[in-house]
């Protein structure tokens, strides 16, 4: 008997765009080594393994792997898995169906609100299990520019400077002046570990204020070569941590702020990630990540 799996495109409502995700629905009994090997077999940025839970308040336990290692938390696996499990629960949808899916991840329980609609991509939104916090100092702009194949004058815009934040997974956030500079960014592996260190983060989220879509707030690219991800089409965990940089540099006032992040365009995998930040007494009170996902394939693993 095979183990069922599905492939979804996440942070998009159009198949063959967004960030592809593999979800193994029947993962009970697989070893860590088998999960890592299966992830390399799929060769996607992340693969999720769904396991039974003994907590009646949880929908499932999940484990998330990249081709290089396991992650305690990630955004597009959370969105895609929540939508898929809701589809498994309700089957064919007539009209609209709302549901709550609670995923037990290494970081803790993640509550996801899911909306399924007839003949449409599903939508999921979740509260970050940890609020963004600083994760150490970033390197200077010369070192970062060399690692990204850019000029030092390409780094920074307005008051935005390189910074490091985490919300479960740390990232270095690198502002660049415009879309042209962002399109020219390319990891230089001989310089990479000088700029992106294990002590802070080996992953770079590079962004600018200029966008392709008129209602987007930022355009971004994410490079994680040491995790086996040369470039990621959409990175929800990075966008969650990015809320810390946005709050710090843009000095967000009290209230709820909706910011759409576009990513993956250079790769031909356009993705849209919805970020909501609640500010109370000038401090972050809550951060939410949302997006759509659509199933593109189903099958079985004979392992």
Automatic annotation (TrEMBL):
The active site is at residue 46. It comes from the Bacteria. One of its GO terms (cellular component) is cytoplasm. GO terms for molecular function: isomerase activity. Belongs to the PhzF family. InterPro entries: Phenazine_PhzF-like. NCBIfam families: PhzF_family. This is PhzF family phenazine biosynthesis protein.
């Amino acid at each position: 008997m095979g183990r069922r799996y599905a492939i979804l495109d996440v942070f998009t409502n159009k198949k063959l765009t967004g960030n592809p995700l593999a979800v193994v629905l029947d993962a009970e009994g697989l070893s860590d080594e088998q999960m890592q090997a299966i992830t390399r077999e799929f060769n996607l940025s992340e693969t999720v393994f769904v396991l039974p839970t003994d907590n009646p308040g949880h929908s499932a336990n999940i484990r998330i792997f990249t081709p290089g290692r396991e992650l305690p938390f990630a955004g597009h696996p959370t969105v895609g898995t929540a939508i898929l499990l809701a589809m498994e629960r309700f089957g064919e949808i007539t009209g609209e169906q709302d549901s709550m899916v609670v995923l037990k991840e290494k970081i803790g329980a993640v509550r996801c609100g899911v909306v399924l609609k007839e003949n449409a991509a599903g939508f999921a939104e979740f509260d970050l299990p940890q609020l963004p916090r600083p994760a150490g100092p970033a390197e200077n702009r010369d070192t970062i520019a060399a690692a990204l194949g850019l000029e030092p004058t390409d780094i920074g815009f307005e008051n935005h400077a390189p910074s490091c934040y985490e919300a479960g997974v740390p990232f270095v956030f690198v502002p660049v002046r415009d879309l042209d500079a962002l399109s020219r960014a390319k990891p230089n592996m001989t310089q990479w570990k000088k700029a992106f260190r294990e002590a802070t983060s080996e992953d770079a989220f590079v962004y600018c204020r200029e966008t392709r879509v008129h209602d987007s707030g930022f355009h971004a690219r994410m490079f994680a070569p040491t995790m086996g991800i040369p470039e990621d089409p959409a990175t929800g965990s990075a966008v969650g941590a990015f809320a810390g940089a946005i709050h710090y540099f843009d000095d967000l006032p009290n209230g709820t702020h909706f910011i759409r992040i576009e990513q993956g365009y250079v790769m031909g995998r356009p993705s849209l990630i919805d970020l909501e930040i609640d500010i109370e007494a000038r401090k972050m009170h809550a951060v939410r990540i949302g997006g759509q996902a659509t199933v593109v394939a189903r099958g079985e693993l004979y392992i």
